[in-house]
Design goal:
The chain contains ten helices and twelve strands. The chain is α/β, with parallel strands linked by helices. It has one domain (2-309): Rossmann fold (3-Layer(aba) Sandwich), CATH 3.40.50. α3 (86-107) links the parallel β4 and β5 (112-118). α1 packs across α6, α5 runs parallel beside α7 and α5 (179-189) crosses α10. The protein is globular and about 60 Å long. Mean pLDDT is 91; it is low at 38-48 and 309-313. InterPro entries: Epimerase_deHydtase, NAD(P)-bd_dom_sf.
C-alpha cells in the first residue's frame, strides 16, 4: 500500500511517516515544503520520496499531476502552520486542504484522505464537559478559523476522508515554538537553581503524545471501510498547563523558580479549558492513548539531552 505523507518533514508528519514505515506492506512517500531525505529507494519505476510540495502555493493542476504520478492509496495531510501572519495561516491551513481535495478529486478520487485538524476549531470548552465531535465549532482566533475552514473543505469534498482533530501534542521532537519545546530548551540553558520566566500557565488543556497521534493517523489511513468525518485525538483528560512546567522541571532536576510573568498568549487566555471526548476514535479505529503526559515529557527531556550532546561546540 502506498501512503503519501504531506508535511513529512515537520513534527507530526515526521512521526507519522516513521510510524507508517513500521507497518507491514506500507510504502511511505514523503513530501514537505522543503525536500527531505528519501528513507529508502523504492522498487524500479517508483517515484522518489522526499518531495517538495507547498500546499499553500502549489497550483491545483500541478498538484493533481504529481498525485497522478505517485498513485497513492492514501494521503495523510500533516502540513499546516501554527504561527505567522494571516496570509501564512490561511494559506497553509485553509487553502492547502482545499487545493489538496480538488487535486485528489481529479487525480486520485479513490484514495483515503486523512487530514490533521486542531482542537482550536472548537474554541472554549466548558469545565467538566468534554468536547465531542458534534460540539459546535467556535474558534476564537485566526488560527482556529483557518483550521476549521480546512476541515470544512475536507468534510465537504465528497472524498473518502476523515479529519483527526488533534488536541495538544507533546513528546520527542516538540518544536521550539511550542510550550514544551521552549521550556525544555530554557531548562537546558538555565542553572539548576536559576529562574525560568514563562507566561500565564493557568489554562487547562488535553495533552496527547505525538506518537499516539501518529498511530491514530496510520490507523485511519489503513482502516478498511468508511470512517466518521471527524474524530477527536487526545488524551481524554484536562490538565493544567502548569503541569508541563512542573513535570519538565522534575525531569531536569531543576530546583529554581518558574515565574509566570505576563498574560501569556492571547489564544490561551481566550480558551481557558478544553478536554476531548475520545469515545468515537475508540469505536471507529480501536484507538486510545497509550502514553501518559509524564512519559511524553520524560522522553522529550531525554531527547533534548541527546540533541545538546550532538550539537557543534
Amino acid at each position: 500500500m502506498r501512503v503519501l505523507v504531506l508535511g513529512a518533514t515537520g513534527y507530526l508528519g515526521g512521526h507519522t511517516a516513521e510510524h507508517l514505515r513500521a507497518r507491514p506492506g506500507v510504502r511511505v512517500l514523503g513530501a514537505g515544503r522543503a525536500p527531505g531525505p528519501s528513507p529508502a529507494p523504492g522498487p524500479a519505476g517508483e517515484p522518489a520520496a522526499g518531495l517538495a510540495v507547498d500546499l499553500a502555493a502549489v497550483p491545483v493542476p500541478e498538484l493533481a499531476a504529481l498525485l497522478a504520478d505517485l498513485r497513492p492509496d492514501a494521503v495523510v495531510n500533516c502540513a499546516g502552520a501554527v504561527g505567522g501572519d494571516a496570509v501564512a495561516l490561511t494559506g497553509a491551513n485553509a487553502r492547502g486542504p482545499a487545493a489538496l481535495c480538488a487535486a485528489l478529486r481529479e487525480a486520485a478520487p479513490r484514495a483515503r484522505l486523512v487530514h490533521l485538524g486542531s482542537a482550536a476549531e472548537y474554541g472554549p470548552g466548558e469545565p467538566g464537559r468534554p468536547l465531542a465531535e458534534a460540539h459546535p465549532a467556535r474558534p476564537v482566533g485566526l488560527y482556529g478559523a483557518a483550521k476549521l475552514a480546512g476541515t470544512l473543505a475536507v468534510t465537504g469534498s465528497g472524498l473518502d476522508a476523515v479529519v483527526l482533530r488533534v488536541f495538544n501534542p507533546v513528546g520527542p521532537g516538540a518544536p521550539p515554538a511550542s510550550l514544551p519545546g521552549r521550556l525544555a530548551a530554557e531548562l537546558r540553558r538555565t542553572a539548576p537553581d536559576g529562574v525560568v520566566r514563562v507566561g500565564d500557565l493557568s489554562a487547562h488543556r488535553d495533552f496527547v503524545d505525538v506518537r499516539d497521534v501518529a498511530r491514530a493517523a496510520a490507523d485511519a489511513a489503513l482502516a478498511p471501510g468508511p470512517l466518521p468525518p471527524v474524530l477527536n485525538i487526545a488524551g481524554g483528560r484536562a490538565r493544567p498547563v502548569r503541569d508541563i512546567a512542573r513535570t519538565l522541571a522534575r525531569a531536569a532536576g531543576f530546583r529554581g523558580r518558574i515565574d509566570e510573568e505576563g498574560a501569556g498568549s492571547s489564544r490561551s487566555a481566550a480558551v481557558a479549558w478544553q478536554r476531548a471526548d475520545i469515545a468515537a476514535a475508540l469505536e471507529a479505529l480501536g484507538w486510545r492513548p497509550r502514553r501518559t503526559l509524564e512519559e511524553s515529557l520524560a522522553d522529550l527531556w531525554e531527547e533534548t539531552a541527546g540533541a545538546r550532546e550532538g550539537a557543534p561546540r
